[in-house]
Structures are given as structure tokens and as C-alpha cells.
Amino acid sequence: MARTTDQPPPEEAGAHPAPVLSERDGGVLLLTLNRPDRLNAWTPGMADRLFALLREADDDPAVRAIVITGAGRAFCAGADMDTLSGISGARIEVDGRSMAAPARLRKPVVAAVNGSAAGVGLVLALFCDVRFAADDAKLTTSFSRRGLVAEYAAAWQLPRLVGQGRAMDLLLSSRVVLGAEARDMGLVDFSPPREDVLAEALSYAGVLASECSPRSMAAVKGQVLRAQEAGFDDAADESAGLMADAFAAEDFAEGIGSYLEKRPPRFPGLGARE
């Protein structure tokens, strides 16, 4: 498959490496948090770059699925401590909705948690659609041990994944759980060995990119997000309308045709939002 990379210009590459690397292989875009010497600690520059790349990917018909991982031995160790120490004692306003960016995309986003994920790094993974975590990866909310609160809507998302009791445990204690325990409680979905986590996440994303309708996946993501707040009747009525739309769309004809003809589907990509 064609492989493309998004790297900083040569004059920028020396002293200031890109905080997020971008590489596309076929329909799968791999985004890598790139501060390995700081365990990919989160900074405003990293946030701006990641969210910009996600927006671009959502509008690029060549991108069918996205994987987010970390360079080196960590996924993201949380907010950069130098940044946090610099704001101690000040009242800083933040965008509490920003970390939900992966969930709000039309395209599936897979987290490949290759190592430690703490604080805002864990929240980033929580708002991805599917989570792979190395079986020995260390995961922690960390907030209560830093005098912080459940940041970036973690108190909304975490109980929906693991239930209220476990969410309270993880948020109140900030205890560390390993990837295997995280899988057992529903915090992550798959926990392969560390050396396999990225390959398995990319393989999973590759199936989404090559075999699943982008239009269908976008509709499903919207349904699931809205259904978390809707009642049964609203969710059922919405699904009926979306089903009628799907029956009339070209992706349905292609999905049935490819099955009957025993060939891979040729679904059109999603371009810019209307």
C-alpha cells in the first residue's frame, strides 16, 4: 500500500521535532505522540498538533481509520510537569470538551497504548473508539494524587466504560492498573503483549479501512454518542430513519454486491463535512 508521512521541514527537524508524527499506510493514518524523552508528556503544542491532524484526517477521503500511539516506551505520561508547575496558583481556563475530539470524528479512532498512560493521556485513550493496551502498560487517572479533579469529562466517560463503582475507585484512588486488569474491567478492549500492541491495533484499523463502509461507521459513531443521553424511543426512532437512508445509499448496494460477487468492497471515502 502507498505510504505517506508528514514530517517537519528540515530546518525545523533538528532542535524542535514535531510533537506528533503522521504516517498513512493505505487507508490507515498512524499518529504518534512524539516526546519520547519525556514519556510523551502532554503540552499545548502537542494538543494543537494532534487535534489539527485529526480534523484534517476527518476531511481526507483517503483516510478510513486512525490509530494513535506513543513514541518510545510510553503512550502519554500525562501533562508535562514543567507546564503544570508554571501555572501553580493561577486560575487557568481550559476547553473541557477538547479531549473528546476522537469520539466526535466521523472516522474510527483506535488507541494503541504501548506503555504508561496517565491523567490526560489516559483520558485521550478513553475517548478513542477502541482501545488496545499492552498487557503490562500502567494506566492511572492520577488526578487525585496531584490535587486535581476528573479532567476533560473523564467523570462522564469513565463510568460509561467500567461502571460507576469502578470509575469511583479509579478516580478516587488514582491507583495504577495494568493492561490485563484494564481489559478485564472494560477500561480497554484488547491487551496483547507489549511488542504486539501497535501491530494488532494497525491490523484492526486496516480491517475497518478495507472492509467497512466509511458512511456506516460515521453513522454508527454518531448513534452511539447520542444514544448515551437519549431514551430508548428516541434511539429507536433515530435508527429507523438512518436505516431508511442507508437502504437508499450507494454503500448498501456496494456492500450487498461485493458479498454476492465474493470480492472486497469498494466503498467511497468520506470527504469534508458538509
From TrEMBL:
Database matches in InterPro entries:
ClpP/crotonase-like_dom_sf, Enoyl-CoA_hydra/iso, Enoyl-CoA_hydra_C
Q: Name one Pfam family in it.
A: ECH_1
Q: Which residue intervals make up region (Disordered)?
A: 1-21
Question: What protein family is recorded?
Answer: Belongs to the enoyl-CoA hydratase/isomerase family.
* UniProt protein name: Enoyl-CoA hydratase-related protein
